[in-house]
Automatic annotation (TrEMBL):
This is Cation/H+ exchanger protein 2. GO terms for biological process: intracellular calcium ion homeostasis. Residues 1-31 are annotated as: Disordered. It is a multi-pass membrane protein. Residues 101-151 form the Inner membrane component domain. The gene is CR391963.1.
Length: 736
């Protein structure tokens, strides 16, 4: 068919089918819709609260760490995760190999000296004569704790039989065998020989002899006064150490179970078996403790109350009803973090040891800076919990109030201390920290995420259009922040502290060498009449641009957030259990903020010896330690997203922080300086300005094709390290 006949045929078909034009329009509409779908970010969450949290991440910036604010259904978790949460009273039908590296390490770290303590306590109880039954129990537990793996501690007794009669669902086993029982009954209870009397019923399970109640025995009080206290100390110490090590949490559970249950039982009710399948003749039994592995590498996934195990370190006891009996079980709770004791120690030492007699200022500074990590975790979790359960207005207020509280607390404290001590060096350190945060979020966080994601997934794709929007916003932010600096370079007067002639014999018209040159901003009318109004103008425009961005994502273009709960659209959050209520989250936010202020005060008080190091530039300290330590949780966020092949979110993490620094943190510092003059001037050094501008240009070039691999990530990280080298070898700023 020729081209003309084909066109004629198409024209005829259009005349015969008037709806063809409509179908063509629909085709174009579908193409447009497909392009629109490609530009959307599809957010999948388990419920509406989690979906709100993710949307708020886009609106206000990603919060510290990536945790759930609601309880996840246990049945939906993987078998590996379910194993982490299983209790140590479940007998496995097919146990794994017991000789493992973790089990051997347990013997070397804990087993031998715990067994030695039981041996000594057992000898002490034998010496009292009255406590001989407890001495026998201690010697049995001495062998058990030397190698507990595969062995089982059971509870036996009539109490459980009564439990089973009253509560049939209670987990206990009643077995009758022909062989003699472990605990022999009295002669009156031995079954009589067979009598040919058909009317006599079959013998029932033998009852144990009557015994003195537990709390009516003298041996019980001897045990509680002499034997139990040292074991409390030993087991508590093992619990603490093994919990802090995270991967040895089974050891912590085992010791907590022993301390709270087994050692408080009558000694005749505790039976230790060397086989998981042994049947205890004649008596009902219930497994109390059976451990198979001392360590599990997957415990880094362990979470309680929605908080990762690395932020959980305290145990609390609660009472539960077990078959009519009250037992105290130990469960992990989240009132503190692994580093939270460091916060307390840092505050106590910092405010008590004023004269540095116990520790040096360097140690106090390191402890105060490290304390920022757990506090920022709780601040981030509190913000996420409140905003996920609230409307947009409340979420906006909470994020605006507490979103940058970690960094702002340190910056304001440093400016106040520098102003009181007339030390301009701290102001330069704050500017270096702001610039270091920008460089780290623009270069290092995307770079390290691209490297790790590229090594696992080879090549990852992201939406170049959305990345372009973020990059444009970065251009606006960086351009606005450094506008006063460019203005001062163009119109300011260069002032030098000392100038000397190159040729000593030459006259004053010869060339000179000048030192410590800077632009004079205080003298003259340039600063007060031109630069200062420009600074205030920029500080108003940048937050306004941030608000416009929120309106863009909330109202006019809210459709780009296509929220899904599983495979269906969000409908509600009824039945969703939230880990932290709003009031609890608010209380944690307030307490963490107060502690953060105290730690920031200690850090700025003891930073001066660090700044006085002759071989390290103050610029380098600001752009590394002070800038990146608070952002460690964000780096973890980005890496987790990259490993999940979601590089788009990894890139958003760095962009959100950089935008918040420019559009919120810096304007807040300018506003604070307007009400409380601490000498903060929004004029940066040339190195800060050109490093930031070059970083934004480089990132825009990398993001153009919508693809990422480990080579592009390496390029960003290498550039970041080069800039750090520049800061390391740079001369100290003026006033330092």
């Amino acid at each position: 068919m020729s081209l003309s006949s084909q066109l004629s045929s198409d024209t005829t078909n259009r005349r015969r089918r008037p709806g063809e034009h409509t179908q063509g329009a629909r085709r174009h509409s579908c193409e447009d819709s497909w392009e629109e779908i490609q530009s959307r970010r599809t957010i999948r969450a388990e419920n509406e609260v989690e979906a709100n949290k993710l949307v708020n991440n886009y609106r206000f910036g990603f919060r510290k760490w990536k945790s759930h604010v609601t309880e996840r259904p246990f049945e939906d978790r993987s078998e590996v995760v379910k194993e982490l949460y299983s209790e140590l009273n479940i007998i496995k039908p097919h146990a794994d190999q017991f000789i493992t590296c973790g089990n051997v390490l347990y013997v070397l770290l804990f087993g031998w000296w715990v067994s030695l303590v039981y041996l000594v306590v057992g000898a002490l109880m034998f010496a009292t004569v009255i406590g001989i039954p407890y001495g026998k129990l201690c010697w049995k537990l001495c062998c058990y704790f030397l190698w507990p793996f595969g062995n089982t501690i059971h509870e036996i007794g009539n109490t459980l039989r009564r439990c089973c009669e009253e509560a049939p669902d209670c987990e206990c086993s009643v077995t009758v065998e022909d062989s003699s029982p472990v605990l022999l009954p009295s002669p009156a209870e031995v079954p009589a020989p067979e009598v040919p009397a058909p009317e006599v019923p079959a013998p029932a399970v033998p009852d144990r002899p009557l015994r003195t109640p537990y709390w009516h025995r003298l041996s019980t009080y001897v045990w509680l006064l002499l034997g139990y206290p040292p074991l409390v100390i030993i087991h508590s110490l093992v619990c603490f150490i093994s919990w802090i090590l995270v991967f040895t949490i089974p050891v912590s559970k085992m010791n907590a179970q022993t301390l709270s249950i087994i050692l408080l039982l009558p000694p005749e009710d505790v039976l230790i078996s060397t086989s998981s399948h042994r049947k205890h003749q004649g008596y009902e039994t219930r497994a109390l403790l059976c451990c198979y592995r001392a360590a599990n590498w997957y415990y880094y996934k362990y979470a309680v109350d929605g908080i990762n195990v690395f932020a959980v370190s305290i145990l609390y006891s609660h009472s539960v009803s077990l078959c009519g009996m009250t037992k105290t079980l130990v469960k992990p709770f989240t009132h503190t973090s692994d580093l939270l004791p460091l916060v307390i120690v840092a505050l106590v030492i910092g405010y008590v040891d004023k004269e540095n007699q116990l520790v040096s200022s360097d140690v106090k500074f390191a402890m105060a800076i490290s304390s920022i990590i757990p506090l920022s975790y709780y601040i981030g979790m509190g913000i996420a919990s409140i905003s996920a359960q609230s409307n947009f207005a409340v979420g906006a207020v909470v994020n605006a109030t507490f979103g940058s509280i970690t960094e702002l607390t340190f910056y304001i404290t440093a400016l106040l201390r520098g102003h009181r001590a007339t030390n301009p060096c701290l102001q330069e350190v704050v500017k270096a920290a702001l610039t270091g945060t920008l460089l780290g979020c623009i270069l290092f966080i995307p770079g390290i995420c691209m490297i790790i994601g590229g090594l696992k997934h080879q090549e990852q794709r992201f939406n170049s259009r959305s990345a372009g929007v973020s990059s444009a916003l970065l251009f606006i932010s960086v351009g606005g922040v450094f506008a006063p600096t460019l203005f001062s370079k163009a119109y300011g007067n260069l002032v030098c502290d000392a100038c000397s002639s190159i040729n000593a014999t030459s006259n004053s018209s010869g060339p000179f060498v000048c030192h410590n040159c800077h632009y004079d901003l205080k003298n003259g009318t340039l600063f007060h009449d031109h630069i200062e109004p420009l600074v205030y103008t920029v500080s108003v425009l940048l937050p306004a641009a941030y608000v416009i961005g929120l309106i863009f994502t909330l109202k006019t273009h809210s459709h780009i957030y296509n929220i899904h709960v599983g495979e269906v659209q969000v409908s509600g959050h009824h039945g969703t259990v939230v880990h932290w209520s709003r009031w609890r989250s608010l209380l944690i936010l307030i307490v963490a903020t107060v502690l953060m202020s105290a730690c920031a005060d200690l850090a700025t008080e003891h930073i001066q010896p660090i700044l006085n190091q002759p071989n390290i530039s103050q610029y380098f300290i600001g752009v590394t330690v002070l800038a990146m330590v608070p952002e460690i949780p964000e780096i973890v966020n980005g890496i987790q997203f990259a490993l999940q092949n979601n590089i788009s979110l990894s890139l958003e993490v760095g962009s959100c922080i950089a935008v918040q620094v420019c559009m919120l943190q810096i304007p807040i510092l300018v506003l604070f300086n307007a009400f409380c003059d601490v000498g903060f001037v929004l004029v940066f050094s040339d190195q800060h300005m050109w490093a930031s501008i070059f970083s934004v240009i480089l990132v825009n070039y990398i993001f153009m094709d919508g693809k990422s691999d480990y080579f592009q990530g390496t390029a960003l990280v290498v550039v970041y390290l080069i800039l750090l080298a520049l800061y390391f070898f740079a001369p100290s700023p003026a006033g330092c």
